[in-house]
């Protein structure tokens, strides 16, 4: 009797929910949450309309409560439904070319090359380092590191400044089916290449790229770096997982992503854009190709430790999103999930503007007892955000355990990330939107 019961348990199939059904469930969860928020916020709208008129009151509250609440509910539901399929072959052997574009990376390139050399990948690794008009000894240092580690390393030169020009120059030298881009200050976990190639090898033919997981290496630097550690570990990772679930990852980031070489050539290579990786990814999606995300493929990068460099980086990301929206209209995307996810980005400038010019002044007013803008209904977003972070933390901790990594204790960074990070991000993003609208000079560093 016991054997029969055991056999039944073993043969019992897990409930399979198709991706499209998961999408519908998440949509319903988001709409239900937003409907509940609207119901409870009616008195708030009436009070605020006495000062700014009813239509403006609705727009303000939509930007700081309704739309963010919907998006958070959609994300939490998606994360709870996400089940990463197993790869077919955990030890692929297909040859891969890694491209590292460098500008004055003499201090970091040797370490990056060393981490490439210690990969547990069984296939051939070809490494191309592109010296993008460096003023230091980047090229010489890379060559010496390659020789020391017995790597198949080639150095090419591109005098025209710009990461896209550097990568396109190297693309002409790529002879392998897959090509991986890696930033010069980004270090690969020893199994990163194996996991990311295994994911692409196990994917359907219409998958053209896989984004890896990028986390913070220098989180002990200062408090800004500690806050960003949680942004990469929870915020960016949650968005990647959500998009990866629906097979439409919106950014196969240049810092660490794997591509099918022929597809990059088909879309004309990396574009001349400040967000070249965003525009490249959206061009894939517009060509009816899907983009995956692999959480087990982990790399660690340095994040800005000064407000000046952080400001430039994040405003550049905001500009890149606007560039992509101008080039590829969401409603023209052939894949339903790509239409939806790129369409969500249409609301980002609106929410950032409302947050910057309405919520932040409203927060100041609330300290003086005037709850016209920041009121009780805004609290509806908080439990969702905490639930989202808890779900992601639990999942990420499991990934770290599988990779023999340990989650750093960074309590102060987490508290500041939850309470204060958006205070920085929205104004910076607004400046990025303004920069792109006015076509101001691009600054990469």
Architecture overview:
By secondary structure, this protein is of the alpha/beta class. The protein has 2 domains: 1-81 and 329-405, no CATH class; 96-325, Spore Coat Polysaccharide Biosynthesis Protein SpsA, Chain A. 56% of the residues lie in helices and 12% in strands. The protein contains 16 helices and 8 strands. The chain has helices at residues 2-11, 19-40, 42-52, 54-81, 109-117, 138-148, 163-171, 192-201, 223-245, 261-266, 276-286, 307-327, 336-344, 348-367, 381-402, 411-438; strands at 96-102, 125-131, 152-157, 178-182, 187-188, 207-216, 256-260, 290-301. The protein has an 8-stranded mixed β-sheet with strand order 3-2-1-4-7-6-8-5, sandwiched between helices. Helix 5 (109-117) links the parallel strand 1 (96-102) and strand 2 (125-131). Helix 2 (19-40) runs antiparallel to helix 4 (54-81), helix 4 runs parallel beside helix 15 and helix 9 (223-245) packs across helix 16 (411-438). The longest helix is centred in the first third of the chain and has 28 residues, at 54-81. The radius of gyration is 23 Å and the shape is globular. Mean pLDDT is 90; it is low at 5-12.
